[in-house]
Design a protein that fits this description.
Distance between the termini: 40 Å
CATH class of the largest domain: Alpha Beta
Number of domains: 2
Structural class: alpha/beta
Order of helices and strands: HHHEHEEEEEEEEHEEEEHEHEEHEEEHE
Number of helices: 9
Strand content: 25-35%
């Protein structure tokens, strides 16, 4: 059987998203778009932007008109793209009036700036750039329509420019296929979340250092998080959980719940749940097994899940992930990944604690 290439996988994602878009009623598009617009308009990046680059949306896309109107109302310089048919080039033009400065033109039938009424402005002038996409993933990778217009434009961006993808939540995936020419965005805003991928590594040279890492995580994590731990057998996942439980005020040391699925530790606040999915087999899991797992994951309090990759389809893809990325017997490198903007606060706090504990970290 021939292995799928990234390009063929991209075509599959585009087809799936097109089918989802066809079944979405216009009233639903409008309601979800309003929530997304509200999030964008409340962002500091929007408030601070003097020059905003955005786009006029197709009917099935996140509707941007409220954002464009507010930008003009606040006196911001608004830039919208213009694509020349057959040229493969996309330029940005200043738009002052959404009614008179735009007209629908090929190749996509999107409202575009009228050259006779607008002047071209370099995209490099914009401090905030709103970007459309067929699909995104939790790491803010973007899948476009396949023409490469935005990938080329984003590749020219300056480091301080903020790029924000707009998407409906069902068009954000755990992972989408990418190729070297694909450019991720800095943030993705949906009707439910603001995605912002962050990652750093911590080097632990002893079990004590690994437990310290867990203590830093346990001290910083909010009580409503599900944390995935992914590493081979005997790598120190349970040692990390031991440190997390200690940080939460647990009086009983954490031990592996391999044979019981879950251990529950009483802490100073809510119970701490510790799952071990080593024996989980997604292909053989019964409806009763799955229901039991989902019930545990819905319980209040912090939850740590060892071997989370064995049941990732049942875990929230927005959950923080702790993964062993390199390791010898006494020298292990752990990667801590978060996927939501709301995680930034506790992640910064965790980094401060890691530094205070003398662990070696790398952003």
């Amino acid at each position: 059987m021939q292995q799928e290439t990234p390009d063929s996988m991209k075509r599959t994602f585009r087809r799936v998203c097109r089918e989802q878009s066809r079944t979405r009623y216009p009233v639903v598009v409008s309601a979800l778009s309003s929530r997304i617009a509200k999030s964008v308009l409340s962002m500091k990046e929007f408030h601070d932007a003097e020059i905003l680059a955005a786009y006029a949306a197709l009917p099935e896309e996140v509707q941007t008109h409220p954002i464009l109107e507010q930008a003009l109302l606040e006196g911001k310089t608004l830039l919208l793209p213009r694509v020349v048919a057959g040229c493969g080039d996309m330029t940005f033009w200043r738009v002052r009036d959404l009614e008179y400065d735009l007209r629908c033109e090929p190749p996509f039938g999107i409202p575009q700036p009228i050259p006779e009424r607008c002047e071209p402005v370099s995209l490099a002038e914009a401090s905030l750039v709103l970007v459309p996409g067929v699909a995104f993933d939790r790491c803010c990778n973007r899948l476009g329509r396949g023409k490469g217009y935005y990938d080329h434009a984003l590749s020219q961006m300056r480091p301080k420019q903020v790029t924000v993808g707009l998407a409906f939540e069902d068009h954000v995936f755990r992972e989408i296929p990418t190729t070297p020419n694909d450019i991720p965005v800095g943030l993705v805003v949906t009707e439910k979340y603001i995605y912002a991928h962050r990652s750093f590594t911590v080097t632990c040279d002893s079990p004590g250092a690994t437990e310290h890492l867990g203590f830093c995580l346990g001290s910083s994590l909010p009580s409503d998080k599900i944390v995935s731990l992914i590493a081979p057998l005997g790598s120190g996942k349970t040692v990390i959980v031991k440190g997390m439980v200690c940080a939460r005020g647990g009086t009983v040391p954490a031990t592996s719940p391999t044979y019981t699925l879950v251990n529950v530790y009483e802490t100073q606040h809510q119970p701490f749940r510790h799952l071990d999915l080593f024996r989980w087999n997604s292909g053989k899991a019964t409806e009763e097994n799955i229901e039991e797992l989902l019930d545990i994951l819905s319980e209040p309090g912090l939850i740590a899940v060892e071997w989370a990759d064995r049941a990732e389809e049942h875990l929230p893809m927005q959950s923080p992930c702790i993964r062993l990325v390199a390791g010898r017997e006494r020298h292990r490198v752990w990667q801590i990944e978060t996927f939501l903007l709301e995680d930034s606060h506790w992640l910064d706090e965790c980094l401060c604690l890691i530094s205070h504990k003398g662990l070696v970290s790398g952003i």
